């Protein structure tokens, strides 16, 4: 086995891993999980605004 064959096998393995990751990332089963993760930053804003409204009602 020469170095060219080893590089070819390595390239094919990496390509198969890449295709596997792409299929996993774009599968319909993962979509709800990724959408929830994408909206996590907005959950903090909702909590902050709810806390601010609660503080304002206490002051009044």
UniProtKB/TrEMBL annotation:
Stored Pfam families: FixQ
TM region positions: 6-26
InterPro entries: Cbb3-typ_cyt_oxidase_comp
Name of the protein described by the UniProt record: Cytochrome c oxidase subunit CcoQ
Key words, A-Z: Membrane, Transmembrane, Transmembrane helix
